[in-house]
Amino acid sequence: MITILPLAGVPEVRAGDDLATLVHEAVAQSRATRIEPGDVVVVTSKVVSKALGLLGSNDVERADLVLQESQRVVAERTTSTGFTRVVEAKAGPVMAGAGIDSSNADDDVRLLLPHEPDAEAASLHGRLADVAGHADFAVVLSDTSGRAWRSGLTDFALGTHGLTPLEDLRGLADTHGHDLAVTVRNIADEVAAAADLVKGKLDRVPVAVVRGLDRRFLHPDADGSRTLVRSGPTDWFALGRAEAVRDALGVPAGSAMSVEVGIESVHPETVTDRVRRAWSAAVLPDPAGEDAALDGADEEWSVTCADPYVLGRIAARFEVALAGERLVAELTPNPGSVRVGIAQPRH
Questions:
Q1: Domain boundaries in the chain?
Q2: Rounded Cα gap, residues 273 and 263, in angstroms
Q3: What element of type H or E holds 327?
Q4: Residues 181-198: pLDDT tens digits?
Q5: What CATH code is assigned to 241-343?
Q6: Which of 225, 137, 320, 337 is nearest to 329 (CA)?
Q7: What is the DSSP letter of 233?
Q8: Is pLDDT above 80 for 128?
Q9: C-alpha distance from residue 89 to each of 70, 114, 144, 235, 251 (Å)
């Protein structure tokens, strides 16, 4: 039977604190009483960041700080408070805002994720092993994130040590004798999410002990959480809908040009605003765009240019950019111009 035990005795963590000692003392004061062989100690990454003093500079705008803590931008939107970006964080996962966090911290504090969370999990495991008197346990650093196609937030494994992150069941037979073709269980994320059921976000319980997990999942040389991040050919969603189109047109997400073109809003926008943004995406990256002009409003527009080749080129780029805005364009060529009728798809 799996038991999840909250450690409520961890005090407010400050930069330079010995987190292993704080966790060990909290274990002794809890129902867990001690770290037993086979336990998984799940620690909220926030307290690791606090102990390491990983703070973002208040002299840097939050949007710029997100870019600094990112490998690449996956999607971006304009909100009432500025830009929100989903990024591949330097810590590894794809998540909103690079995981920069100000909750449960002073007003002027912006906590950053460790760039090598598996190494931090290993370091914490080593220090905990010293005070616990044995190393037969695992450590998971957890963080919180949303998931594509699902509402709400859940905890996931940002860093791991001593826990096999994935269980590959492909090739094994199910209860009906059929071979499993795609089933790979994410054990690390399941453990992190389970621990959050007793940690929570409002009760200031940053650590939990998961006891009773099948011992086959614990191994001192297990791969870390980096193996959980899909990248390259396995990442089918490297860019968002709008970002993929704009990137193909030469407007990379997170760039100064993206800001100049304009970034789609989470709030309702007029067709005219979306058309104007599509036009900017079509012409600004293309030097030939300087010779073309757009006129019109609402659903009726006209692209003009004296050079017929440039006219065709820009009109084609405009049609693609409009598709990125979820607008359907009907192009009708005329001498020296292209009429562009705009419609919104039903879906």
A1: 3-54+114-234, 241-343
A2: 11
A3: none
A4: 878 899 999 999 999 999
A5: 3.40.109
A6: 320
A7: G
A8: yes
A9: 4, 10, 13, 15, 20
163 pairs with which residues across the strands?
Answer: 218
Token representation of residue 236:
């089918």
pLDDT at res. 104: 59
pLDDT of 32 reads 84
| pLDDT at residue number 202 | 74
Q: DSSP strand E in 126-255: where? A: 138-147, 150-161, 166-168, 184-186, 207-211
CATH class as words, domain 3-54+114-234: alpha beta
- Distances in Å between the alpha carbon of 66 and those of 14, 95, 116, 128, 145? 23, 11, 17, 32, 15
Please answer whether residues 114 and 91 qualify as being in contact, where contact means their C-beta atoms are separated by less than 8 angstroms: yes
- 45: closest CA among 113, 147, 138? 113
Residues 127, 137: contact at Cβ < 8 Å?
no
Q: Answer whether 3-54+114-234 and 241-343 agree in fold.
A: no
Determine the residue type at 7.
L
Q: What pLDDT score does 344 carry? A: 80
The string of pLDDT tens digits covering residues 297-347 is 999 999 999 999 999 999 999 999 999 999 999 999 999 999 999 988 755
Q: What is the pLDDT of residues 31-89, one digit of tens each?
A: 888 999 999 999 999 999 999 999 999 899 999 999 999 999 999 999 999 999 999 99
DSSP string for 46-61? HHHHHHHT-B--TTS-
% of the chain at pLDDT higher than 70: 98
Q: Which of 290, 271, 281 is nearest to 321 (CA)?
A: 281
> pLDDT for 206-244, tens place per residue?
999 999 999 999 999 999 999 999 888 888 889 999 999
DSSP class of residue 117? H
Q: Which of 223, 203, 200, 64 is nearest to 144 (CA)?
A: 200
3-state secondary structure at position 248: helix
Exposure string over 145-157, b if 16+ CB within 10 A, otherwise e: beeeeeeeeebbb
